[in-house]
Amino acid sequence: MKDLIPQPDDLICPAPEIFDSAAVAKRIETAAEQADGNTSDLRKAVVGILSDQLRHGRDAIAAGLAERPFASRPTVRAYSWLTDCVILTALDVVTSHIHPLANPTEAERITVFAVGGYGRGEMAPQSDVDLLFLTPYKITPWAESVIESMLYILWDLRLKVGHASRTIRDCLRLGGEDFTIRTALLENRFLAGDRQLADHFRKRLWHELFDGSEREFIEAKLEERDARHEKQGGQRYMVEPNVKEGKGGLRDLQSLFWIAKYLHHVDSVADLVDVGMFTEDEFDTFAKAENFLWAVRCHIHLITGRPTDQLTFDLQVEVAERMGYKDTAGRRAVEVFMQDYFRHATQVGDLTRIFLTKLEAAHVKSQPLLQRIFRRKRKLKKGYTEVHGRLAIADEEAFLSDPLNLLRLFEEGLRTGLLIHPDAMRLVTANLDLIDDTFRNDPKARKLFLDLLLKHGNPERALRRMNELGVLSAFIPEFEPIVALMQFNMYHSYTVDEHTIQCISNLAQIERGERTDDLPVSSSILEAGVNRRVLYVALLLHDIGKGRDEDHSIVGARIARKVAPQLGLKPKEVDTVEWLVRYHLLMSDMAQKRDIADPRTVRDFAKAVQTKDRLDLLCVLTVCDIRGVGPTTWNNWKASLLRALYRQTQRAMEGGLEDLNREQRGSDAKRNLRDALTDWPAKALKRETARHYPPYWQGLHVTAHVVFARLLRDLESDEIAIDLAIDEDRDATRACFALADHPGIFSRLAGALALVGANVVDARTYTSKDGFATAVFWIQDADGHPYEAARLPRLRDMIHKTLKGEIVATEAIRSRDKIKKRERAFKVPTHITFDNEGSEIYTIIEVDTRDRPGLLYDLTRTLANNNIYINSAVIATYGEQVVDTFYVKDMFGLKFHSEAKQKALEKKLRTAIAEGVERATA
């Protein structure tokens, strides 16, 4: 048996350290003697011997990979070789000792093949073992016994075996019906058995199954790829990518190899250079990407001990650490690692595109259906031609004689609507050195670039392709650090460069009139007219400062001051772009982290913005920025906050800031209530308008005033009145409570809401002059939608029980207040600030920390225990991070001016947060 197993020298560690075939053979020989013909005892002994060797071999390979964490090729070969050794040993034992056959007949021949990934000789630590047992005719009782005994050994070794027992005729028939089976057969590798049968099988596969069906196979593989991408999320920058099945993953590279093998009978990817499918550089890119992705997959399997290929957030941190990535200034090791991952995934996409175009040129792959139907030739500018429905370069030498053509190519693509031919892309990538300082300072180049942004109505198409080919970073070198830069959090769905392009795509959609219904304010702003050059350049540069050890808005503003003039903007435009980049988060923060009902919020915002032009630009930029974060980030709640802030600021700018005063708001609110309750007696109306303090009138809309008026009208001091209504316009459920006031009311309500899984996004409480509390909470479910009507009765019941003391929230919430394992990798430092300037009568406490279900309850309970009155709370959630803002007064109705008091309270809040996190991760 030991002679059957050659020892390769290209494994992650010396072959004898992985599988000592001589020692194994000796132990099996001894076991066979001791078994003395008892096959059951022998099988048990062999399983023990191979189990020890498997464990020892896997440990040796894992140790080798730990020493050289990027050496994936010798690692996957080592796992495959170890599996070969086990299979061959098991087969040898079965055919020599358990079912020996001295003189096999013609029908009693058997051949064992490795197929699929194992057939390629590529295995990750948890890969399946796919085997084909081939017999010349219908399976004989002896062959059946051999296969069964062998499988029992492999199953006892806990190997995940996929197996098929077939004749050559079976393989040809099934391979003709099913492309998955055909692909597995394509990657057959002879392991042991009858060599003559193996050779005959391979010849028939090529002559009777593969040859002549190339187009059919390629179309099937490409359809399969598209379906796989769709299932995995459809884009390369998924924040938790699937290393094997995702876009730009291993399966994409394997698909290229399958197609090449089917077409050209190649045995390795290196052969693709010889047949003209790839250049040497492109093969090098393929090899590096494949090596990196295999390394990542091996580390995932070793960490989890399972055949998982999803690179979840918690695994990203561990894999980055195992592969030796280190934290750098402004960036965590995991972010550096994921930037490398996405850059490799992008290169896989580039290689796929080049490869498919080569197939198209050879007429093996069909042209896209729509291109075949609409064959109308477009009129192209001089120097361009159309090849297979794509924009190609007529004369490469002439094209390169004017470097500006590197930008004109993209403009011609936008103008004609044609996709750029991969050969043209190759030419651009190979000549990026032409984009030098002379090129960047050429006024024509600047105009061409701005035209790409402003002229054709779909700039994201050009920007995405320019980014993938390196043109964007060559023209704006400051853009290069954010290419494929992942932000390690649950808020951002895209890398920074892709987020930037998504933002510009959103702006173009609004400009094209596609968002008039859901974005009326932004649409009307653009319709009225803004400086488009400023807006597009500001959006392009707004996050360019990310990935550095300094506030990205400040760094970005500095970069914008340098880059904007190089793009051809005038000094005044440069000033506005710089301001927009510096303060691009201002409107979002004001709307989501401050109480817009407080006149000081609008007044401070208006003073910061100063002009109507800036307000318009910042509003549109903010909308595009939030919408560009991810497909589910934008909702009606955020829309309503931004609209309210925009309209109030616009009114303040038009009528003067002095119009923003509390007295005026209070008088207007009382008048609105009278108008809404025309059926009420004058005495009841007078009582209602007199029972509340000024903040109540200034802080709520008339719809809430009407609800509370009705709840309070006949309310007894021992009753709790609740009104729950779904507010579709704000994507939230409004919960109004009226009850006798007592300390900690806000906290108890927050606890009851947490117990039923309701997320609070906004809340405020007021005390009436006659001792009642009026509280209103806006709540959403876990997906950011209104709390369902069907769940409202349970919510009502839970609130009653909590307020009456039947349920103690502190105890009940423990089982719910958990942070999921995959989300524990995120580090969110806690920041607590006290602001006495942002409101006239309240201190604003802003708590920026790690989100979890019981956080709001813990914070409000801590405030209540310290005799702090909470007027309102504004909650802004950014993935795993949350900013809870409280408008508070002390027990005497005063602000927290004392630094000592602030520090003491901050310490208690931090303790509550730390204890909560400990509880949530226990």
List descriptors:
8-stranded antiparallel sheet, 922 residues, 56% helix, alpha+beta, 41 helices, 15 strands
Descriptive report:
The mean pLDDT is 90. The protein is 56% helix and 11% strand. The protein has an eight-stranded antiparallel beta sheet with strand order 8-9-11-10-14-15-13-12, with helices on both faces. A four-stranded mixed beta sheet has the order 3-2-1-4. The chain has a three-stranded mixed beta sheet with strand order 5-6-7. The relative contact order is 0.04. It has 922 residues and is α+β, with helices and mostly antiparallel strands. Strand 10 and strand 11 form a beta hairpin. The two termini are 52 Å apart. The protein contains 41 helices and 15 strands. Helix 24 packs across helix 31 (612-627), helix 27 runs antiparallel to helix 28 (571-582) and helix 29 crosses helix 32 (636-655).
Work out the number of β strands: 15
Give the distance, in angstroms, between the N- and C-terminal Cα atoms: 52 Å
What form results from the Cα inertia axes? globular
Q: What's the mean pLDDT score?
A: 90
- Spatial ordering of strands, largest sheet: 8-9-11-10-14-15-13-12
How much is the radius of gyration in Å? 34 Å
Q: What structural class should be given to the helix and strand makeup?
A: alpha+beta
Beta-strand content: 5-15%
- Main beta sheet: strand number and arrangement? 8 strands, antiparallel
Fraction in helix: 55-70%
User: pLDDT under 50 segments (min length 5)?
Assistant: none
Number of helices: 41
